[in-house]
């Protein structure tokens, strides 16, 4: 009996080898800045579940941190191959010698912006004169953008204008109670409120409101070691975006698998309605960026972004857009069979 089992096992191994399924997957660790799985990383979950990472011969582990500054430190020090976080922690770290580049443009907007209740009389930042603005904490990157927005409108922007209110229910209660008249959070914080049915009006920075301000980062010390695997990650992320556009409900259900607590609703229909509100807000599912432009940086726009960050004292050294971000690895992604990806999305069960 043992002999028969050994023969069967050997035959199975030979079959896997002959069909090309027995391949050595290369490990890649990606460090993001969220403490738990979040809608901000849904394309990673889609790329994992739909097999796009596997198609590149990659075994990807997504790790979590207590914020973008910690994620930046871990990645820059070699604790992860790549990192997914906002630009600001890197800009602060640059003066202390942190070096690397962003290789994938994750958003088409600045992730930090302000919000007021949908029925608020405030229609612009100038209308917030004399108002108190809620922030998650006084170290948040949203404070930087909010200060700049207030200054651009000719308003006071010192710490007395802001009140730490946390996120989620605590931020909402501060807004409802009148402790604050506006919020300054990030897209993920607002997405959770959208999922809960909260209706807000959003105010964006006049100069950098629609410039992507987060992405996939690789430290200079790791670049040569991980660049080939990074190209595979980028290719898989582009496929994930195509998949999500074609079948957002499937992407949502994949997200629920990664984060079961995000599925909220008494019925499946309720959960789909609230879930799609969150996903649509986070991932801009109506985005029509051409496939060959997904993930690429506009260096002219990044130059404007860096100018604002220098005005705010976030960037104290000379840093060019070319030194901050590169399209070099996106240039290596090559053509993608979008029809095959769409077919997979349409047939997803």
From TrEMBL:
Cited Pfam families: NMT1
Q: Which PANTHER family match?
A: 4-AMINO-5-HYDROXYMETHYL-2-METHYLPYRIMIDINE PHOSPHATE SYNTHASE THI11-RELATED
Q: Which domain of life is it from?
A: Bacteria
Query: Which SUPFAM superfamilies does the UniProt record give?
Result: Periplasmic binding protein-like II (SSF53850)
Whether DNA repair counts among this entry's keywords is no
Catalyzed reactions per annotation: N(6)-(pyridoxal phosphate)-L-lysyl-[4-amino-5-hydroxymethyl-2-methylpyrimidine phosphate synthase] + L-histidyl-[4-amino-5-hydroxymethyl-2-methylpyrimidine phosphate synthase] + 2 Fe(3+) + 4 H2O = L-lysyl-[4-amino-5-hydroxymethyl-2-methylpyrimidine phosphate synthase] + (2S)-2-amino-5-hydroxy-4-oxopentanoyl-[4-amino-5-hydroxymethyl-2-methylpyrimidine phosphate synthase] + 4-amino-2-methyl-5-(phosphooxymethyl)pyrimidine + 3-oxopropanoate + 2 Fe(2+) + 2 H(+)
Complexes and interactors: Homodimer.
- Quote the protein name from its UniProt record: Thiamine pyrimidine synthase
> What organism is listed for this UniProt entry?
Bosea massiliensis
Its annotated function is as follows: Responsible for the formation of the pyrimidine heterocycle in the thiamine biosynthesis pathway. Catalyzes the formation of hydroxymethylpyrimidine phosphate (HMP-P) from histidine and pyridoxal phosphate (PLP). The protein uses PLP and the active site histidine to form HMP-P, generating an inactive enzyme. The enzyme can only undergo a single turnover, which suggests it is a suicide enzyme.
Q: Which residues form the SsuA/THI5-like domain?
A: 43-251
> Known InterPro entries for this protein?
NMT1/THI5, SsuA/THI5
**What are the UniProt keywords, alphabetically?**
Iron, Metal-binding, Pyridoxal phosphate, Signal, Thiamine biosynthesis, Transferase
The pathway noted for it is: Cofactor biosynthesis; thiamine diphosphate biosynthesis
Q: Which family does it belong to?
A: Belongs to the NMT1/THI5 family.
Where is the signal peptide, in residue numbers?
A: 1-24
The answer to whether UniProt assigns keyword Transcription regulation to this entry is: no
């Amino acid at each position: 009996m043992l002999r028969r089992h050994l023969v069967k096992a050997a035959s199975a191994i030979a079959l896997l080898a002959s069909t090309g399924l027995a391949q050595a997957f290369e490990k890649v660790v990606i460090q993001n800045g969220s403490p738990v799985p979040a809608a901000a990383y849904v394309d990673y979950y889609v790329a994992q579940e739909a097999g796009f990472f596997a198609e590149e011969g990659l075994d990807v582990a997504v790790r979590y941190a207590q914020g973008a500054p910690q994620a930046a430190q871990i990645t820059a020090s070699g604790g992860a191959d790549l990192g997914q976080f906002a630009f600001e922690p890197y800009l602060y770290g640059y003066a202390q010698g942190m070096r690397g580049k962003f290789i994938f443009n994750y958003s088409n907007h600045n992730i930090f912006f302000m919000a007021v209740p949908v029925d608020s009389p405030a229609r612009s930042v100038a209308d917030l004169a004399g108002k108190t603005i809620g922030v998650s904490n006084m170290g948040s990157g949203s404070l930087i953008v909010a200060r700049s927005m207030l200054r651009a409108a000719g308003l006071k922007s010192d710490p007395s204008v802001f009140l730490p209110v946390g996120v989620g229910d605590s931020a909402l209660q501060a807004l409802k109670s009148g402790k604050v008249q506006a919020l300054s959070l990030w897209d993920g914080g607002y997405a959770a409120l959208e999922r809960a049915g909260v209706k807000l009006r959003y105010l964006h920075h006049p100069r950098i409101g629609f410039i992507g301000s987060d992405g996939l980062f690789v430290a200079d010390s790791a670049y040569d070691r991980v660049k080939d695997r990074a190209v595979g990650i980028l290719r898989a992320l582009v496929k994930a975006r195509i998949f999500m556009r074609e079948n957002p409900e499937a992407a949502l259900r994949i997200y629920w698998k990664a984060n079961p607590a995000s599925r909220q609703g008494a019925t499946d229909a309720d959960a789909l309605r609230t879930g799609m509100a969150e996903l649509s807000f986070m991932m801009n599912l109506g985005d029509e960026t051409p496939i060959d432009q997904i993930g690429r940086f506009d260096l002219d726009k990044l130059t404007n972004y860096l100018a604002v960050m220098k005005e705010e004292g976030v960037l104290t050294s000379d840093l060019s857009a070319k030194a901050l971000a590169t399209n070099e690895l996106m240039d290596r992604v090559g053509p993608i069979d979008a029809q095959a990806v769409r077919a997979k999305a349409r047939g997803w069960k």
